[in-house]
Design brief:
This protein is an alpha/beta fold. Helices cover 59% and strands 9% of the residues.
Length: 412
């Protein structure tokens, strides 16, 4: 058996091949281009890499063109956590020396000694991987949009509270196109007080508003004409220019989030698992795509629901030593899936009577806090999702949350 380890970098990579005894068979220093990839594939083929007997490869990343090239065919690729690789390095050298060729050798030996303890990259379909790219990008764009919105709010508090009062009539108002158009027309409080009804109405129409324009015009005009404290004129003008610069970044973030949201929905509905995922209460196209992005569609990835629950960080972990034992939540988990699970469980409370009853039992009967009760609900529902995806069944409220026996007897 041959094992391959690759220490990757931005421009070059180091490759090492070892046999069952740990003997170094070959090492190469390749470039990060097609010529370097060809050298790597030829080296693997020279030592017996075929479709029937692929050589497993260990590398410290799961992304990039190099990984995409390695994943062609049936070759198993193991993404080793850099922290785990650093611990293995101490097994081979107590002097704490480090080199790129040495790290490639360490990665190869990880597979030689502990391949059973590591999981290869899942064999997800091309569509599932595309959904993952779009869903993660949309999630990042949403977080970036919120960050820019918070930055704009902090700036407006320094000199323009009237704009915040005007945006308060809408939820997440600073991200609304109406407020963005208004701030472009009046970047300072002095300019805002000079706006006429027709100018405010024109700004609302440029933002795409077609209903309740007159009512919103009056609310905006009233908010702008309220007495507020002012910065000195020159300082106010300077802050207005800074605000316009931040506003451009917020507009770009809003546009990116909206465009990616459309792309996510178009790709997600094409997947065969979309019907099953969307049948669950609390999961829409955006949130469902995020769940699919993190769990993938490789049915062999998780042997049972317990593995998926541990991966999502929803199941508790026990820490025991001697007579002491503590049950706590997991810290090592897929943060994106865990975040999506919190939103999923929270949304399910209003769309599933069984989910709401389960949440109330955790809060009232077990004394859980809000986050703990939601995590417990997510733990139960993601186990149900694992079953439904394996059997390709739709969500069934009665099967997922059956009535307690006492209630069934009383109803009879």
């Amino acid at each position: 058996m041959i094992y391959c380890g690759i220490d990757w970098a931005e421009k070059t990579h180091d490759v090492a091949l070892v046999d069952d005894s740990g003997r170094l068979l070959a090492k190469r220093h390749i470039t990060d281009d097609m010529a370097g990839y060809k050298i790597l594939l030829d080296l693997l083929a020279e030592y017996g890499d075929t479709e029937e007997t692929p050589i497993p490869v260990a590398i410290e990343t799961s992304r990039g063109l190099l990984v995409a090239v390695l994943r062609t065919g049936k070759r198993p690729v193991f993404a080793i956590n850099p922290m785990a690789a650093a611990r293995y390095r101490d097994r081979h050298a107590v002097s704490r020396k480090k080199s790129d060729p040495g790290d490639a050798l360490v990665l190869a030996n990880i597979l030689r000694t502990d391949i059973h303890a590591h999981r290869p990259l899942p064999a997800d379909s091309e569509l599932a991987r595309a959904v993952a790219v779009l869903a993660r990008a949309q999630q990042d764009a949403t977080w970036n949009r919120q960050q820019m919105s918070n930055q704009l709010r902090s700036l407006l508090r320094e000199y323009y509270p009237a704009a915040l009062a005007a945006a308060a009539i809408w939820q997440n108002g600073l991200c609304r196109p109406e407020i963005r158009e208004f701030l472009k027309a009046a970047p300072t409080p002095v300019m805002a007080r000079r706006l006429t009804r027709s100018q405010i109405t024109a700004a609302l129409k440029r933002a795409g508003r077609k209903r309740a324009i007159e009512a919103d015009t009056e609310r905006l005009r009233e908010a702008l004409r309220t007495d507020w404290a002012h910065q000195p004129p020159l300082v106010e003008d300077a802050l207005g220019k800074q605000m316009l610069a931040v506003l451009l970044q917020l507009e770009a973030a809003c546009t990116a989030a909206d465009n990616l949201a459309k792309a996510v929905e178009e790709a997600f509905v094409q997947h065969e698992d979309a019907e099953v995922i969307l049948s669950f209460p609390g999961l829409g196209a955006q949130l469902g795509a995020r769940v699919l992005a993190e769990i993938g569609d490789d049915r062999e990835r998780f042997a049972d629901a317990r593995g998926l629950k541990a991966y999502a960080g929803s199941s508790p972990i026990t820490r025991a030593s001697g007579k002491k034992s503590a049950i706590t939540r997991r810290w090592v988990k897929n943060d994106r899936l865990n975040h999506a699970g919190y939103l999923w469980a929270f949304a399910a409370l209003t769309s599933s009577p069984g989910a709401k009853a389960h949440y109330r039992r955790r809060r009232d009967g077990h004394g859980d806090w809000h986050a703990s009760a939601l995590r417990n609900l997510f733990n139960r529902m993601i186990g149900q999702l694992h079953h439904c995806l394996q059997q390709h069944e739709l969500f069934d409220e009665q099967a997922a949350f059956p009535a307690p026996p006492a209630l069934e007897v009383s109803a009879a």
